[in-house]
Amino acid sequence: MNEDVGVLAARGGAPQQAVALPLCVDMDGTLLRTDTLHEAGVAALQAGPAALLRLLRALGQGKAALKAAAAEVWAFDPATLPYSPAVLAFVEAERARGRRIVLCTAAHRTIAAPIAAHLGLFDEVIATDGQDNLRGDRKAAVLVERFGRGGFDYIGNDATDLPVWAAAAGTLAANAPSRVLRQAEALGRPVQELRDPGTETLPLRAVAKALRPHQWLKNALCLVPPIAAADFGLTAWAGALTALVAFSLMASGIYVVNDLCDLAADRAHPKKKRRPFASGALSLQVGAVMAPVLILGGAALGWAAGILPILLAYAVASIAYSLALKEQPLVDVFMLAGLYTIRLFAGGEASAHPVSLWLLSFSGFIFLSLALVKRVAELDRLVKANQRKVSRRGYTVEDAPILQAFGSAASFASSVVLLLYIQSEVAARTYASPAVLWGCVPLLLLWQCRLWISTTRGYMDDDPIVYAARDWVSWAIFACLAGVVGLAWLGVPGILR
Asked: 3-state SS string over 170-203?
């Protein structure tokens, strides 16, 4: 074959086509695994009412004006955006063969130009500018005027690209749904399919990942009040379990909101950049549907369990934390501790065993310690990355020693509270052999000290609860704790009080 003429492998073994024509590449949903207009909309929500009003005024002037206003609101780093590996690899290969590459997008030029400059792959940028919204038929007309009908190949991804494919010589579809592929094939020419790994089927795994089911472990705190009251009856546990499911749905909805608000920070994070919305595995539109459905589902169960006010307080506090409070030093860790503790109140109300001051005091200290573990682990990663400050956090690496001191003190304070409880009249009335509960003190202190050593050694994940759930030593300690509590409840001969 002539070295100057390559071939495109057509879908389904269709005829081959020369590559001498310019290759025009769509951006939103094609080159990028996200939509920049939706990203700008999320940025406007975070920026406040003034930014939203600006977008609403621009919307009355047309789609092009809206995109221009959105581009002014959205401050983004092209290096962290989620690009399609399949499209990038194809474009790089075609450029290496000397082909002319054109970025042709309905996004505004002030967004498209920095992305093109960052990648360094494009010879020309054609984008929405002024009053001309370069989408669908209008994009097709501009490309025909620029290159002639049949004078270019085009990579798109959805039904709005059908008029462009109809005017192009070659049809390439990037991560397109099967319905769009059938519509493109109906135009009467071969379709080359470019697809990223993991996009062959519906993104069910990405949806499940966005729910963060591993975080539901925290909601087991709803079961603590009936356990602490030594009530293992069906009624108490039915209420507590309903509260657990309600908090799980509500928490998953809020996690989706948090992910949408933290797109930029997550993309700059070595692990969080793989989250479904940050990576582009799920579109922001899916997130906009998931969040209200999950939150409303959780609220319905909360109403059934009689804890709706508590659940709504949790939701408001969580959203406030996601939007602003997580940026305030110390306020954020106290808020996290409070979000743990509120689950105890919910479990107590749902099971008819209100939380005692003993349990409230103990949980407040231990949850504050866990929240500080999370922050110190984040600062440790900053040190390893030679950075001083993480996005949307109020701490710098110099704060790590004092935060460790605060957290260690909270761990030991929780043990002191537990010691005092064991000697209280409440424990004497609840357990047959409350003295056996002394075994819980060294076990809990051992577990917390282990968390702190793991944190200082850099082993800690983003969340200490998630870390503990994957740590066999933690499970062994929890099993011993369950055994000690069971013996105290049943009673041990010779150790009555």
From this structure: EEEEECCCHHHHHHHHCCCCCEEEECCCCCCCCC
CA-CA distance, 88 to 145, in Å (whole number)? Answer: 26
Residue 462 near residue 266 (C-beta atoms within 8 A):
no
Amino acid at 112: A
Mean pLDDT for 235-259 is 93
Q: Which two tokens mark 393?
A: 């956090």
d(CA 132, CA 135): 9
Alpha-carbon distance of 301 to 246, in angstroms, equals 5
DSSP state letter for 106: E
The residue behind tokens 């870390």 is 467
The architecture in CATH of the region 23-194 reads: 3-Layer(aba) Sandwich (3.40)
The answer to whether residues 353 and 229 touch, using CB atoms and an 8 Å cutoff, is yes
Do residues 29 and 135 touch, judged by C-beta distance below 8 A?
no
Mean pLDDT confidence for 252-258: 90
Over 50: is that where the pLDDT of 159 sits?
Answer: yes
Q: How far is CA 336 from CA 364, 375, 416, 487, in A?
A: 10, 11, 22, 32
At residue 61, the pLDDT reads 63
- Residue spans per domain, the chain: 23-194, 204-490
Q: Determine which of 151-160, 201-210, 288-297, 447-456 has the lowest per-residue pLDDT on average.
A: 201-210
Backbone angles phi, psi at 189, to 5 degrees: -135, 160
* Domain 204-490 bears CATH identifier 3.40.50.300: no
Does the structure show a pLDDT above 60 at 244?
A: yes
Antiparallel, parallel or unpaired: β 191-194 and 170-174:
parallel
| Residue 239 confidence (pLDDT) | 94
Task: Check residue 423 and give left, alpha or beta (phi > 0: left; psi -120 to 50: alpha).
Answer: alpha
Q: Which residue, 223, 225, 290, is CA-closest to 251?
A: 290
Residue 434: predicted pLDDT: 85
Please report the pLDDT score of residue 323 as a whole number. Answer: 74
